[in-house]
């Protein structure tokens, strides 16, 4: 008994010590935190924020880090300091050290560094947007000359012809940036087109101290940043194509604008802290437009790095363009509904990549293909039977004749289209015709096997011929590019494009606008595999076709640069308003824009915002909804944040004396209560500024959302001169039928100011939707 008691007395302290060790280990584990500070609290003894933050970290470390931690080199460490887009720093520290920091003068808030991702699913757009050399926004803006676009992304491939600086004037004297040397990248890689290049990966090292960066410079080995930059401001390049598809002249939206490149995404990791450092530097060096084709998983505006940094950029007069994301088509999948940026949705253009299928009886059928070569498929036997048409395994396809064209029919039992193509590429058949309604193929370049995809309606003549002729044959011609309204009108809203309302702020309609984002041809890393044939032939190209809101965002960035060049006095809000109020809700057949995700039914503003951007109309919008920095401060102050959360965004330069959620925005978002027979009403006030060159009178035209009542007062606005301002009010009422009245039912309409005896129309979308349980 005595012996057992002794063992128990020994074990208990050991267990207790182990428990203490686990507590200590948890509290001393290190993470990377983004810290927001109040710059006005910086003691006068410090010459810079960096000195202040460094001293704060050192003092905190001396007080809290134990000897064992020092021995293992795990002390707190400063990673980034920020002093332009917002105030603060990133540091590696333990929870104990973070708790000590919370008591330091000037501390506002902190959150863990989180991952980020590019918004991409894996020549012709300027024509589709109406840009031409004869008239309109290109010549009026001198093609965006001397406007500086900052691109925060994966870097750049500087040797691409899209970044030649032929005939560009000297770099603007106001530019404060530099060309940072690094691995396989030196100052000579910059020129009068790429005027700045920097890279930020301290956040990657903070997360994984022993990581080896494969390309430690601004050089882009991924290709995403190169693609985005060339869409926004690429130079004129003749003879560009993607393996024969989309041939022609490639050029960016603002071909004479300058590019400042900030690499923040890495193969080894991508973190908010590095992206924040890139944006902060971007603002400091003097860009005019900031293009961000990235997604941040942080929802709350007061912790979202894009939201915080974009506010600082907006203060400096910089327009920030942000991709809506590729999480569609679900409701409320826009993560970054940031009211002081322009959020961009993705749509198609009037271009179809096809293979021409010619049957032995002379009938021709246009199908979809991206097979990257001119395969020889001439008068080959056509095979159609129920067993083989599933095309659902390599075993089944072994039964097909080796030199035949096999007909595959997609059904609920067959695999996805991409899998069918994979099985076909492992077979001995010569080519395939796939009957499918899967629209996802229209956003992809993966087509490693000779074949075409046709719809069931287009397949009737094919099946009839193959079933009735004793020796049916067919031929396929590849590398065809068709422009125009057939077989589909354009633009159509991409199925993958994220839909509103914004997850982090619902009272303002998001996304704002739609731009081309499906299979956009632009520059790329020339050593990246962009297409394949079969299982082991991989092909590279100087130019590639990518899809995603990542591609739509730089179109808006480029158009913003054109507008900035033509109207240097316009604020970011005025530029955004000009694009939104002149956007087109109709496609190239003059019918409402359709949604690819739902069998081409009508798209809504929750998917496409105000509609497809129209650069030439945006040049002369007639009226704009302008907003000052203080207006945005008042909006933030109305968001029911704590004082610390509010100061994280607006900092200490402003106060919340006049909070208001009614921002002077070019759209209207109305939430109604779903309680039975309950009437919800809201009033909005808007002010329009006349940017036309003369006095003008406008009358309102209203398209009411279904079951809503809308009153406009007054219904006529008279502007006596340029820059004259006039205000009006909008009252919206909606009475709920029942709590179940068609779940998530939304309705939309529009408010249009039409110039009397003039050419201007100023359109704002109206969206009515139910307030959900998780809404603010």
Distance between the termini: 65 Å
If helices are DSSP runs of H or I spanning 4 or more residues, what is the number of helices? 19
What is the percent of helical residues?
10-25%
3D shape: globular
Total count of strands: 40
CATH homologous superfamily caption of the largest domain: Peptidase S8/S53 domain
- Name of the CATH class of the largest domain: Alpha Beta
CATH level-two architecture of the largest domain: 3-Layer(aba) Sandwich
- What would the average pLDDT be, to the nearest integer? 88
Radius of gyration, taken over Cα atoms and rounded to an integer in Å: 29 Å
Strand content: 25-35%
Biggest sheet, open or closed, and with what strands and sense?
7 strands, parallel
Structural class by secondary-structure content:
alpha/beta
In the CATH hierarchy, the third-tier topology of the largest domain is known as Rossmann fold
The low-pLDDT segments are: 1-27, 65-73
Whole-number tally of structural domains: 4
The largest sheet has its strands arranged as: 7-10-6-13-15-16-25
């Amino acid at each position: 008994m005595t012996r057992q008691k002794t063992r128990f007395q020994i074990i208990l302290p050991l267990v207790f010590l182990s428990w203490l060790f686990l507590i200590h280990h948890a509290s001393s584990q290190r993470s990377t935190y983004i810290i927001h500070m109040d710059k006005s609290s910086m003691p006068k003894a410090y010459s810079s924020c960096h000195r202040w933050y460094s001293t704060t970290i050192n003092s905190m470390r001396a007080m809290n880090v134990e000897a064992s931690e020092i021995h293992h080199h795990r002390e707190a460490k400063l990673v980034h300091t920020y002093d332009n887009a917002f105030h603060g720093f990133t540091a590696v520290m333990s929870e104990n050290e973070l708790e000590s920091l919370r008591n330091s003068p000037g501390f506002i808030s902190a959150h863990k560094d989180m991952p980020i991702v590019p918004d991409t699913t894996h020549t012709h757009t300027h024509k589709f947007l109406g840009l031409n050399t004869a008239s309109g926004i290109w010549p009026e803006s001198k093609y965006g000359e001397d406007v500086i676009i900052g691109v925060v992304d994966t870097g750049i491939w500087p040797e691409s012809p899209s970044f030649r600086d032929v005939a560009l004037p000297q770099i603007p004297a106001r530019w404060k940036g530099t060309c940072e040397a690094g691995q396989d990248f030196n100052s000579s890689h910059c020129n009068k087109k790429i005027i700045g290049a920097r890279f930020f990966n301290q956040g990657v090292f903070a997360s994984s101290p022993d990581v080896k960066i494969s390309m430690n410079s601004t050089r882009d080995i991924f290709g995403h940043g190169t693609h985005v930059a060339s869409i926004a401001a690429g130079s004129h390049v003749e003879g560009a194509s993607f393996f024969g598809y989309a041939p022609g002249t490639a050029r960016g939206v603002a071909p004479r604008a300058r590019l400042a490149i900030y690499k923040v995404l890495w193969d080894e990791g991508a973190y908010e802290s590095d992206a924040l450092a890139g944006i902060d530097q971007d603002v400091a060096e003097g860009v005019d437009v900031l293009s961000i084709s990235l997604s941040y998983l942080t929802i709350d505006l007061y912790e979202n790095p894009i939201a915080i940094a974009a506010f600082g950029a907006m203060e400096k007069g910089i327009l920030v363009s942000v991709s809506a994301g590729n999480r569609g088509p679900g409701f409320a999948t826009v993560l970054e509904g940031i009211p002081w940026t322009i959020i961009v949705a993705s749509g198609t253009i009037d271009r179809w990549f096809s293979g021409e299928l010619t049957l032995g009886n002379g009938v021709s059928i246009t199908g979809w293909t991206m097979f990257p070569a001119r395969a020889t498929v001439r008068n080959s036997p056509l095979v159609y039977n129920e067993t083989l048409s599933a095309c659902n395994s390599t075993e089944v396809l072994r039964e097909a004749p080796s030199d035949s064209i096999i007909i595959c029919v997609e059904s609920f039992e067959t695999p996805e289209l991409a899998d069918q193509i994979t099985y076909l590429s492992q077979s001995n058949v010569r080519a395939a015709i796939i009957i499918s309604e899967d629209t996802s193929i229209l956003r992809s370049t993966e087509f490693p096997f000779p074949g075409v995809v046709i719809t069931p309606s287009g397949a009737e003549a094919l099946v009839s011929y193959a079933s009735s002729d004793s020796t049916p044959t067919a031929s396929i011609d590849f590398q065809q590019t068709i422009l125009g309204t057939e077989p589909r009108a354009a633009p159509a809203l991409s199925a993958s494009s994220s839909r509103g309302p914004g997850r982090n702020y619902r009272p303002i309609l998001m996304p704002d606008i739609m731009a081309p984002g499906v299979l956009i041809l632009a520059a790329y890393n020339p050593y990246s595999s962009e297409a394949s044939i079969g299982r082991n032939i991989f092909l590279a190209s100087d130019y590639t076709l990518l899809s995603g809101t990542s591609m739509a965002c730089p179109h808006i960035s480029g158009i913003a640069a054109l507008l900035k060049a033509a109207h240097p006095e316009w604020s970011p809000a005025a530029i955004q308003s000009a694009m939104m109020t002149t956007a087109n809700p109709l496609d190239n057949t003059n019918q409402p824009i359709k949604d690819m995700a739902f069998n081409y039914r009508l798209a809504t503003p929750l998917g496409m915002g105000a509609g497809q951007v129209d650069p030439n109309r945006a040049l002369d919008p007639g009226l704009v909804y302008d907003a000052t920095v203080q207006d945005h401060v008042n909006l933030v102050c109305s968001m029911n944040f704590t004082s610390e959360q509010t100061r994280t965004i607006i900092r200490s330069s402003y106060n919340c004396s006049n909070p208001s959620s009614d921002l002077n925005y070019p759209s209207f978002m109305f939430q109604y209560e779903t309680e039975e027979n309950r009437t919800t009403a809201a009033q909005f006030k808007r002010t329009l500024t006349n940017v036309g060159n003369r006095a003008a009178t406008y009358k309102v035209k209203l398209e009411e959302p279904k079951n809503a009542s809308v009153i406009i007062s007054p219904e006529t606005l008279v502007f006596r001169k340029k820059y004259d301002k006039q205000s009006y009010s909008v009252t919206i009422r909606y009475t709920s039928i029942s709590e179940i009245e068609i779940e998530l039912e939304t309705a939309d309409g529009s408010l249009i100011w039409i110039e009397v005896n003039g050419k201007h129309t100023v359109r704002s979308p109206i969206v009515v939707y139910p307030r959900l349980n998780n809404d603010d």
